[in-house]
Amino acid sequence: MKKASILLLALLMTFSLMTACGRNKNNANNNNAANNGVIDNNGTNNGAADSDKTPADDLADGVGDLANGVARAADDVWNGILDLFGADRRPRTVEGDQTAFAEYGLNEDLIESYTLQTPENGETAHEFFIAKVKEGKMAEVEAALEKRKEAIAARWGEGVGADMEYARQPVILKSGSYIMLAVHEDIDEVRAEFERLTKAE
Questions:
Q1: 157-201: per-residue pLDDT in tens?
Q2: Exposure letters 71-93 (e unless 16+ CB within 10 A, then b)
Q3: Quick one: residue 69, left, alpha or beta (phi over 0 = left, psi -120 to 50 = alpha)?
Q4: Largest CA distance in the chain
Q5: What is the pTM of this model?
């Protein structure tokens, strides 16, 4: 019995290390090297702080991820969308902070995980909010995103050229337990990839 317990613990630690390493690899793919983590449902940015973590910290994070199930599901969808465009066409965004998240008027208790990407500068209006929603909470999250959609459209309603027409037409997409608000000129490509990445739900 003791040997079996030791073996089980060793397997759990190995799996946790693999999970932590995989998470760091995904973070490296983000388009913002200085701040490339997802803000989790506790409001913690898990990207910028990763570079300061020790292997023991990563191991603890891996165990936490294992206990919480798919804790970074929204971030995985975002990374898939980034891969769709490739390095030369990626949306020009930066990771949103708590102030940006507050503009969505969302209660974090409604979602399991999320990522928020806001416009990098005034040259584009690219913005993405992706969330894995808790069971039975989709209507509340969608209502909040509808208000944010209206605010974005109003913000870009005047004083922008035809090349920014997409900014006046944010789109809300739903698939399974996932929801996304997207502001991007190639919305059909984004829609297809979002549905592909979340169809297992």
A1: 876 677 788 999 999 999 999 999 999 999 999 999 999 999 865
A2: bbbbbbbbbbbbebbeeeeebeb
A3: left
A4: 72
A5: 0.64
